Structure prediction request, 392 residues.
Amino acid sequence: MPKQLLLLAGRSLLERSVALFVAHPQVDEIVVALPAHLIAAPPSYLASSRKPVRVVAGGARRQDSVASAFQSIDRRTDVVVIHDAARPFASSDLIARTIDAAVEYGAAVAAVQSSDTVKRARTATGGDLLVEETLVRSTIYLAQTPQAFQRAVLREAIAAGAEGADATDEASLAERAGHAVRIVEGERANIKVTTPEDLAEAAARAGREGEWDPAIEGARIGTGYDLHRLVEGRPLVIGGIVVPSDRGALGHSDADVVCHAITDAILGAASLGDIGRHFPDSDPQWQGASSLDLLRRAAALAADQGLAVVNVDATVVLERPKVADHIGAMRSAVARVLGIEPGRVGIKGKTNEGVDAVGRGEAIAAHAVALLRASVRRARGSAAGPPPPRVA
Prediction:
């Protein structure tokens, strides 16, 4: 069995390494080079990823596998990150620093400074090894992955390999193609599983960490609640969708309880107060405002704090009309303004079984929860500057 498919606490090295990039907010797509015999039936976790994942057949050498994967990346890609499947413990911060260095310098490699004195050896007559020289330890760095490159730089590095250059990593090929490679301070914990001893160390670490999920690194959770009276002469707006009804919710804006509850949940997770603080009903600019717009603004405020929305879930409490037929449209509308897939938006309809004002049909309410995670970049498309590079 390829070592990348060996299990650590029930998850393979490959799955854990892919999960690092599925969870990373700067990465847009993932290409995995697999042994040829696995292409027809790749591991299921690759197909179920929430980011685009393509598989390609690897080659005899590492550089052949990278060349094959490079041909499969989206043509809009600006930066390409290369990572060993056998390094399942790289941190989100290390990936981010390597990407940022590649954006600035063209090529970057994670590396740690040698803590041992390094000797260059030569083979004497009879096969004995002798010290040729002692190298200056302060100049010796041990290369890791991730390694990141601007697309054009990696193209030239791959071309150097195709012309006969043989190297153990892409940074070496980039050097041979004439490019300077920036060293990014690596991590001692970013071990590569090569020997049985490495596997034992990795298994022990995975066991200590439990089933840590990088998707929720730096997670923040917030809750929200909203309630409005129902009156005649108002449209009933729920989750950004107008639901046919003889009465609608009374409020300063369009009184969309789902969007208001989710807005409060996002603001709460980001420790930014509540909807009334940012969009008070005493401010005429919010009169009749679309609550989808308020929700979009709340997500932008969270992004300014370095937080990205992972998923939201809301429950509508309403006696009538029934909302089941409109939930798909609501999920799509909310997902669109949050910049996430509809699959990460949950909306459910409940009644209050005749209890209190909601149960008597006099009001509508909604509860919501939002999961945010720490992001290492400002939100895509932020007005604070140009959009970030597309990364594969």
Notes: The domain at 3-214 is CATH 3.90.550.10 (Spore Coat Polysaccharide Biosynthesis Protein SpsA; Chain A).
